User: Which sequence fits this backbone?
């Protein structure tokens, strides 16, 4: 229990968490690169997506679940490295669910995003959708819903305890989204050094 | 200078997608003798009859995690000299320090590039030829 609480604290450190005046529930807002998992039945996970993907995954028995928000970087011919970035985003989410007590064998997913929100990024959304669907198929995780593709940006609310997801089309934030995604797209998926420790035989 | 083609590698990760990706990256470097296992226990059993030069193992695995796996390898007289590279999901200094204490040869933070993987292997084996 203590480990779970510590993990939750670590996750929340940089995320915006607020009580919504509309429904009175705690909302956790994710942006690009975030992952968040909860076993709190009252929490609502929210994000806004353009070409990005949000995978919403949960264990329906334990009620543990969460969301990530990622965008495969521009592969520039290095498709393996772009996929590595996406696999890592999915793995972080799945591992965190397991740490909170979720059972990998029971996981179910909903996918959102991958929209074609600007002409300059026409194939990016589709590439992200294709990756996410393939990942779930390869890992044997049931895809039970969601909404991907199209020409819209989306605002998503996901309640892991019930698996319920709400979506609304977004127009007012499109310019910000495009700028964020263009920036992320050209960020090479460089590995973060775990430390300055170098060790080997 | 060791030849990458002669290296026998074992990849352990509970996720098929990541195992496939690591295998593919190893093959690009020239390491073609690669065996994959979803569980550390299965890898240990297999290596007792077919030894490997290097293990690349994920840390987060549900039954036996990467550090427990590392400790089991280092405690086994038939496996203890096998190289061990721990794959970590995110930058984690404490995890790396513990891995050092338990005898890891190196770590690899995901997401990684083929160039970084090669660099990590060369820190274990020395410069590699194809």
Assistant:
């Amino acid at each position: 229990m203590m480990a779970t609480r510590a993990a939750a604290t670590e996750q929340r450190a940089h995320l915006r968490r607020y009580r919504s005046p509309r429904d009175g529930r705690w909302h956790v807002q994710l942006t690009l690169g975030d992952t968040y998992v909860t076993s709190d039945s009252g929490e609502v996970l929210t994000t806004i997506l353009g070409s990005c993907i949000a995978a919403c995954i949960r264990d329906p028995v334990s009620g543990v679940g969460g969301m990530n928000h990622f965008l495969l970087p521009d592969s520039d011919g290095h498709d393996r490295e772009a996929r590595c970035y996406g696999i890592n985003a999915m793995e972080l989410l799945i591992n965190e669910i397991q740490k909170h007590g979720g059972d990998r064998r029971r996981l179910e997913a909903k996918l959102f995003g991958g929209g074609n929100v600007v002409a300059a990024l026409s194939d990016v959304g589709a590439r992200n959708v294709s990756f996410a669907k393939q990942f779930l198929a390869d890992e044997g995780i049931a895809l039970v819903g969601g909404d991907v593709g199209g020409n819209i940006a989306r605002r998503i609310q996901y309640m892991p305890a019930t698996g319920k997801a709400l979506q609304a089309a977004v127009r007012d934030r499109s310019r910000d989204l495009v700028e964020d995604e263009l920036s992320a797209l050209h960020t090479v998926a460089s590995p973060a050094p775990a430390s300055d420790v170098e060790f080997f035989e | 200078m060791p030849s990458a083609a002669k290296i026998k590698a074992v990849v352990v990760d509970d996720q098929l997608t990541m195992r496939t990706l690591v295998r593919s990256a190893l093959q690009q470097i020239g390491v073609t003798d690669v065996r994959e296992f979803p569980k550390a226990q299965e890898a240990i059993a297999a290596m007792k009859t077919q030894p490997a030069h290097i293990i690349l193992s994920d840390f987060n695995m549900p039954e036996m995690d990467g550090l427990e796996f590392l400790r089991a390898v280092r405690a086994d007289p038939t496996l203890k000299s096998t190289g061990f590279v721990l794959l970590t999901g995110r930058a984690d200094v404490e995890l790396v320090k513990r891995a050092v204490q338990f005898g890891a040869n190196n770590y690899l933070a995901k997401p990684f590039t083929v160039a970084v993987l090669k660099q990590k292997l060369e820190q274990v084996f020395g410069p590699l030829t194809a």
